[in-house]
Amino acid sequence: MAENSSIPRSFEIISSLRFDPGLSDAACRYASSYPHPHKSPYYLLAYHQDRLIAAAAHFEWNGALNWLQQDLQSFEDILDASIPDRSKSWRLRIVVNINGKTRVEANPTASIDLMSLFIPSLHTKPSLPIWRVYVDIQTTTPSGFTTHKTTARDDYTSARLRAGINSPTDLAEILIVNPDGEVMEGSITTPYFLRDQMWITPPLSSGGNAGTTRRYALSQGFCLEHTISRDEIVDGELCWLSNSVRGFIRGQVIAK
What we know:
The chain has 256 residues and is of the alpha/beta class. The protein has helices spanning 23-30, 45-58, 62-68, 72-80, 144-147, 154-162, 212-219, and strands at residues 13-19, 90-96, 102-108, 130-135, 172-177, 183-186, 190-195, 198-201, 223-225, 238-243, 247-253.
């Protein structure tokens, strides 16, 4: 692995997603092209399994890889055991170590408009809160720890603190930038900017995370991959953000 010299002594691979009892009904009613499995209450379930498999393969964690390559129903059954109350919404954090030992952390999460979980072209411009979006003044070097989601997140934590984002509940995001001045991703979201009447998102070659909502948006033709320079982002411009707990979020750039 190319980043051996910078690998933390101990880390785990992770993926976070939303459990929502209303998701399967909403997907069947309003989003016929929503990815399989349609009837699952876990948002983009198969994509999360794929994401963890890709991370285990990258870090050459054969024990974790063997465990993760189970059938999707068995994977869902493991998540089911972590849900305290299936009538409520939960934020799940799947954490897998090098040997495949897995824990699933469930925390309450706020109710949202379920249409926010589907690509923006499918909803009728709902009244969503607008998040403040900052651009990091420092750069982050791409590595396996930016392409894949792990517990080694010091770079992201530092970027959020530089932007004055002190709580996970803040309606704010900071865009992570590589040494070439290209936007990689957000600290907890994938960003999308409107260019030439088309939404674009940073390519993985810029160093960012292969997120599940990013994969969903690309598969549905909502956006294209295109390099986004920090210098071309305009103060006040609107954008979309997405992640697998909150779905698609409106954002507005604020230049410091």
